[in-house]
Tetratricopeptide repeat-containing protein
Amino acid sequence: MISRKKFLHLAGLGIVSSLVPNFLLARFVESSSIDNDVPTLLKAARRLRKQGRLNAAKNKYEQVLALDASEIRAYNGIRKILLSKKHKELEVIQLYQQASANIPTNLRIKRRLYSQYTKAALGNKKITGQLNIPGGRILTYVKERYEELLLQNYPNKKNLEKELAKIDKYIALNVDIVDTRKNKELKKYRRENRNAHKQRFNHLTAQETVQELAALKAKEPSNDRLPQIREMSKVNISALRAEKDYNGALDAASIYLETIDKSDPYFIKQFRELSKQLNNIDDLVRFENYNHTQKKTFWSALALFDVYFKQSEVLNSPGSSVMDSLIQEISSRSENPQQNFETITRQVKYLILKGDFTGAKTKLFALCLQKAGTSDAHSIDRVNLIIAKFYSRQGSSNDISRILEIVNNPTRFIENEDELTRHTALLNLNRSNNKPIHLQQLQQNINNL
């Protein structure tokens, strides 16, 4: 016999049980409808792919294709996943073969399939043997298929015509027959294409490059577009420099560093060169201070010292305590012969700036001995120029002009009574004269002192 208390307890459970299934069923139906929604699945797959969860993303794309075998975005997503791994080219071709079979009226899918055939024909012999292309020669087959697409009013006719012209060229060069490593005509063709690609913006004026860059930046922000912005920014600076608008070029380099990437080596180089050229030293000091604060390396300390040195030359001042500290830091961070050479050249130049000619001469002797016996004209001439600056600060014009005589005929001065002259001759004894441009540059730099 059921007591009143137990009856009420069971009745309450019944009411709850009548409510809970309806709630859960509603949530289940809602969840199922969301999971079966193609756009939602595509978004989920894309998110998983961006996170690197490729297997989970591939499963989502396959769910999409189970719902709609004609969904091109799913095929494209799977293609990206396959190509993120090695040796998946055949699977990509099979994917597009499946897509073409499922969507026979989609001309873009067909073109992508034929494009994959072309890539295989250009060198992947393992794949080409498994494709069973009618007639045997893949490029001829692709050419015929492209011609059919043109007759079927392919939507982007101009691009397809360019692709067809390229296929004709490949057929003429026998790229699918002759080993690409031995095909000289193919190498020449590719080299010409690379050069043409590099020079494709050469016709633009500085104003046109500014407009092109502005148009790129006006588009929706995307990491995929950053390489294009970088390339056009480089073109913009080159065009501005070609038109001698150095202030505009400096502004362009500065804007890129401030808004895109503060550590890009190309734009750092441009900023440094143009700032020195325009004597925009204060901004350069600020930049090099920031750069050294971030990096704390030998090279960042060296760059900061150089800009302070330039500032002291412009202000005609004998240096500062900051430069003393930097010279010590550079010396302590020096770890190899190249860095040792850079360090001692700065030490000599700094001693000359401060008027310590005795100390500078001692360092110059050591520097000449360090480079004696080498043939590298570039580094030897850097020392030659420092010696010329040493004489220039002392007002010894005859000694300056004698440096070029020593460079041209060092053996004549090897036993000269002047010790620095002997060391200069020893420095240049094995100097390479293969490139006359080095001597021309040295003469020009000495004349500019």
